[in-house]
Design brief:
It is built from 6 helices and 14 strands. By secondary structure, the protein is an alpha+beta fold.
Length: 250
């Protein structure tokens, strides 16, 4: 703007004495907006007027929701406009390309929350930011409160049982995990909960859509599992969908 103002002043100085030129940018269209969606309070698109870091963008979107899985994927749809002037970007957890050949990087929510610059990258115009949503895991049976929980990376059996208030009978030993296999079949895994709590057996890591069932005393009937699942709410997946008006960050 300063350079252009100087050129205009020089050009009209042939006709005016000491001209004063005032100029401002009404609109910028050279930079595409960045999109953010997934496990955030408000999905939106942002138009930048200055460099913006990921954490600031998440704050403007209301922060991440409890449905987040712990990772954030940033897909770059445009090359840097001025590579030599680009601010340094921290090393991501992982980098790759998707099926369309678009490069993306992955960052961790837990590291981003520390506020450290090395975990907080700058967002480029045209970036598509997806806060990954967690898959559910269901806990039913002889527990304080049957529920469906959001599965975080490394979530174990004892952790989800603690989240629902623990088992009703302290001496309960067997815990069943119903797990879908890739071929659509279902396998039933049995764990010794008492031995796991005592540190005698490893605490198993759960997988998406596992059904954890603490059986009640007495004979177990397979058809009772379906009845226990009734009433447990499932979670809809947020999609990019209809975006609100573009937000501008000055």
């Amino acid at each position: 703007v300063n350079a252009l103002r100087k050129d205009v002043s020089s050009a009209i100085s042939k006709f005016l004495k000491e001209p004063k030129v005032y100029m401002r940018i009404k609109e910028q269209n050279s930079r595409k907006p960045a999109f953010i969606y997934g496990a955030v309070r408000t999905a939106a698109k942002y138009d930048f007027r200055r460099p913006v870091r990921l954490l600031e963008l998440l704050s403007n979107s209301g922060g991440v929701t409890e449905q987040h899985s712990g990772t954030i994927q940033i897909m770059h749809t445009e090359p840097p406009l001025c590579p030599d002037l680009e601010p340094p970007t921290p090393a991501p957890v992982a980098s790759d390309t998707d099926s369309l050949g678009l490069p993306f990087t992955i960052y961790k929510v837990s590291e981003l929350r520390t506020g450290k610059a090395e975990y907080n990258p700058y967002v480029r115009p045209g970036d598509i930011i997806y806060v990954a949503e967690a898959s559910p895991v269901y806990v039913v049976g002889n527990v304080a409160a049957a529920a469906n929980l959001y599965l975080r990376e490394g979530t174990t059996l004892t952790r989800v049982l603690a989240q629902v208030g623990g088992v009703k009978e302290a001496n309960e030993e067997k815990v069943r995990v119903y797990r879908k296999k890739p071929d659509a079949a279902q396998e039933v895994l049995t764990f010794n909960y008492k031995a796991i709590k005592a540190g005698k057996e490893p605490d198993p890591v759960l997988q998406p859509y596992d059904i954890v069932e603490v059986p009640k005393r007495g004979a177990f009937k397979p058809e009772s599992l379906a009845k226990m699942l009734v009433g447990i709410a499932t979670n809809s997946i947020n999609t990019l969908g209809a975006m609100p008006a573009t937000r501008i960050i000055y």
